[in-house]
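[step 3/7] fold_predict: job queued, chain A
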Amino acid sequence: MKSLGICAGASTLKATVIDFSGNKPEIISNQSITHESNPRTAFISLLDKFSPGDISYCTLTGRNFRNIVNLTSVTEPEALEAGLKYLHTIGVTQTFDSLISLGAENFIVYNLDKHQCISSIETGNKCASGTGDFFLQQIRRMGLTITEAVECANDPNPYKVSGRCSVFCKSDCTHTLNKGIPVGRVSAGLCRMIADKILDLLEKSPGKNIIAVGGVTLNPVVMNMIREAGVNLYIPPYSDTFESLGAAWHAYKKKVKFIKPEPLIAESHISFRTHLPLLKAADKVTFETIKKSQAEKGDTLIVGLDVGSTTTKAVALREKDNAIVAQIYLRTNGNPVQASRDCYRELLQQLPQGSTIKGLGTTGSGRHIAGLHAGTPYIINEIIAHATAAAFFDPEVDTIFEIGGQDAKYTYLTNGVPSDYAMNEACSAGTGSFLEEAAYESLGINYKEIQE
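[step 4/7] structure written:
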């Protein structure tokens, strides 16, 4: 006799099967898959692995998605309470003051009474900074796997990053890396920020005996930081799938029969206000560019390098006619020096033997470390770079708006010289990287396909 529990989370689907045919309950299957912002398809695929002929009972838990699935479901608090009851069957006799759920999108504290039932629920703010998905986003930007990020996060000197806002923190990490701070210090700083957020939330617990569940419990650096703060922290077996385990236990105790309904998922209709396609306004935009040409032996060239928060770009201009004779556009990947070297290598492959590079200018958030690495005195801030380029195309231009990977800037020119400017301070909401990540993580759309 087997019972199936499924948890439909913010970024993953988790399924646990408990076999009750022996002398004691045994977990025989436990899996977690990312649904890549398409929970419907992933859920149908997951459920196809289980047959009513093999599974006797089934219950679903999770957030909003469970409400459109035609299976019996319970709330996450009910699943967590059932999971606590399961722990008694495997010999866990400790009582806890609170259970903290450390998930992909939020952290929640469930305070427990003397019977280990939930008595109250405490949440932090709605910002996703410091949650599981946020950590994964940041380490991907640094080109690290989870294992690599956790290993290097043991750096004893964590770099302090902002924890009050997810986009502020992302900006902190990006600009810090572009200044040459080692990834180990940044990873350790991220873990420290996550641990501090958890500890702030645990201030709402009536005691120090805490059981932690959720994917973040798999990060030993964060868990050790919490223990070092004096918290008596217990991480149960299957902590990352504790809700689905609880759902399976609930299904067995309540004898919730597993029947695959038709249709499995109810139709839902959501309407959004739409705007006209941007292409409708294409006739209102004038695109300016510099002519492109092939470099020849004996040409004198000047290289411009823009080391941005998200991408690094380089061009080689021919001095005699300002023609672009080589160009490259690469990802920075949190390593401005390596990105600069990759750009130099690509430019050289496009240039013939016998051409001379007369000078190199750097700009962008990583301009200082790139300029230091290259040994050039021509380190130019983005405001001046934008103004110079804009005035080159139109001497009468007076306003520049620039939307970059992390920064958005407004510059006002007087006679081709910047006289006023404003930027988005530390927040990167609405910038290129924000658009890229939102499109990919929420809609599964690659940044190269957004314009389509």
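[step 5/7] annotate
The chain has a mean pLDDT of 88.
The chain has three domains: 1-92+241-270, 93-235, 300-443.
exit 0
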